[in-house]
Amino acid sequence: MMLLSVRFLALLVCSLAQPATAQDTVAIDRILAAYEGDNPGAVLLVIQDGAVLLQRCYGYADLEHQKKMTPATNFRLASVSKQFTAAAILQLINAGKLGLSTTLSEAFADFPAYGDVVTVKHLLTHTSGIPDYEDFVADTAFNPQIKDQGVLDILMKLDSGYLTPGHQYRYSNSAYALLALMVEKYSGQPFAAYLQAHIFKPLDMTTTLAHEAGRSTVSTRAFGYTKTNNHWELRDQSATSAVLGDGGIYSNVLDLFKWDQSLYSDGTLPDHLVKQAFAYNTLTSGDTVKYGYGWHLKQNESGDKVVYHTGSSTSFRNIFYRVPARRFSIILLTNRDQPVEEDMLILAERIAKAISE
């Protein structure tokens, strides 16, 4: 009942602060002032103890048609999508369909020999050494855009990875495209359909989807913009925007609220698998990898574990920032190519600090 009432209130008003103080709101509006006015904007949701602490909307979702941001505005999540790809894989592992030790060669017939030692765990934790598919795709390659299968096709033509699996952390979008294809292989469903049936629908995430042009439609959509010569230019897609597993999910703060809360319950992901997703990993050298399964990991100034993920693609910058021990989360979604991705973490931490002071 509380989830429904929160969602209903959020649909009615963009400025929801309960029980955040007026001082909190003023401080956060100051932090996010660049998104105000006649600019590509942002939607912010701050969650504390299962309730909406603060909700704010800034700027425009669609400059050409003068559509302002609302809590129901759907953004391309970019790499924030990876947590859903990882969750799907963990569900299938829990069902006994595959394991963390399943290799690329086992999953994909005729994969080159370097796939013999690349496991699902390597892919999840960015320790696979798999080459970045973006290095092989021209920025102008729009017709057609590359998809997850195209990523596999590229990797099948190579004879080695960048490095020995497990020896080094090297972030890889290719890894998550391969994981999406594994979801298809071991579930017998297309990736988008699997997510819909096993994550989005059970959580009543009614407008969230892995978007496939010509097959699905993103409702109430934020379009992406880049600044050129001091002018905002519509640039919503790139040659790689159709790859689903690494960044192709669209969602809004209302649906992500439900996903956030599900991670505290034994729901779409059993509690022991959530804990695995939020656990540090180790290289063969013994060094710690500050990445779980679909989540970056760190400690905040108070010593609490933070699980988060930024997302950066053509004209979208996002962050999902969680402090599970305090049941505190920040979701910030934007439709512009500024700032650089790493600065989204700084923004989230500035917002968290403003609320705690």
TrEMBL record:
The keyword Repeat does not apply. Keywords: Signal. The lineage of its organism: Bacteria, Pseudomonadati, Bacteroidota, Sphingobacteriia, Sphingobacteriales. PANTHER family: BETA-LACTAMASE-RELATED DOMAIN-CONTAINING PROTEIN (PTHR46825:SF9), D-ALANYL-D-ALANINE-CARBOXYPEPTIDASE/ENDOPEPTIDASE AMPH (PTHR46825). Residues 31-343 form the Beta-lactamase-related domain. Residues 1-22 form the signal peptide. Gene3D superfamilies: DD-peptidase/beta-lactamase superfamily. It comes from the Bacteria. InterPro entries: AmpC-like, Beta-lactam-related, Beta-lactam/transpept-like. This is Beta-lactamase-related domain-containing protein. It comes from Parapedobacter pyrenivorans. It holds the Pfam family Beta-lactamase.
